[in-house]
Amino acid sequence: MNLLFSISSVIAIVSTLMVITRKHPVHALLYLIVSFLAIAVVIYQLGAPFIAILELIIYAGAIMVLFIFTMMLLNLGKETIDQERKWLQPQTWTGPVLLSLILLVELIYLLSKSSSQEHAITGMDTKIVAQTLFGPYLILVELAALLLTAGIVGAAHIGQHKRRVSHRFLEEYNE
């Protein structure tokens, strides 16, 4: 168990460092997804499978789709076609795919090794989680949703402003 925990931890650290050092935002997002997957495996190994599933659903799923949608919204234009072709090159996907495959093999091994009673997801009642989130923490959940929405609107506004400024500059330059 310590070896698998160490492998997952190293993958989480390496992929997080790759997020920080990538120049292209899509590359950084790919490594961020791998980092979330590695953290979910670490959480699963610590004996909290329900939290690991929530990590996958909320962060690796919903939040990453939100980030990708925002990036697509900001990168509208003719130059993005060439940029998207560069992102589809195999060297873009090699690193995240290799790290994800290591995590997949590790997770399959953990699931086949563990007994059904050891890591039963039914140990945590989803009704209790829902009542906690939407009971005393309802305002915090709504504020988080509002903050994400404001971030997207702000990013879209900044992207539109940059596009308008560049079009004005080109029009003045051509005159």
Automatic annotation (TrEMBL):
Q: What class of enzyme is it?
A: translocase
InterPro entries named in the record: NADH_UbQ/plastoQ_OxRdtase_su6 (IPR001457), Nuo/plastoQ_OxRdtase_6_NuoJ (IPR042106)
- GO terms for molecular function, please? NADH dehydrogenase (ubiquinone) activity; quinone binding
Entry keyword Lipid biosynthesis: no
The Gene Ontology CC terms held by the record are:
plasma membrane
Q: Which Pfam families match?
A: Oxidored_q3
Q: Where in the cell is it found?
A: Cell membrane
NCBIfam families linked to this entry: PRK06638.1-1
For this UniProt record, the keywords arranged alphabetically read as follows: Cell membrane, Membrane, NAD, Quinone, Translocase, Transmembrane, Transmembrane helix
The function of this protein is: NDH-1 shuttles electrons from NADH, via FMN and iron-sulfur (Fe-S) centers, to quinones in the respiratory chain. Couples the redox reaction to proton translocation (for every two electrons transferred, four hydrogen ions are translocated across the cytoplasmic membrane), and thus conserves the redox energy in a proton gradient.
Q: What is this protein called?
A: NADH-quinone oxidoreductase subunit J
Q: Where are the transmembrane segments?
A: 28-46, 53-73, 93-112, 133-158
- Decide whether keyword Transcription is in the record: no
Give the EC number. Answer: 7.1.1.-
Q: Membrane topology for this entry?
A: Multi-pass membrane protein
Query: What family does this chain come from, according to its entry?
Result: Belongs to the complex I subunit 6 family.
Under the subunit heading, UniProt states: Composed of 13 different subunits. Subunits NuoA, H, J, K, L, M, N constitute the membrane sector of the complex.
What reaction gets catalysed by this protein? Answer: a quinone + NADH + 5 H(+)(in) = a quinol + NAD(+) + 4 H(+)(out)
Q: Tell me which species this is from.
A: Solitalea koreensis
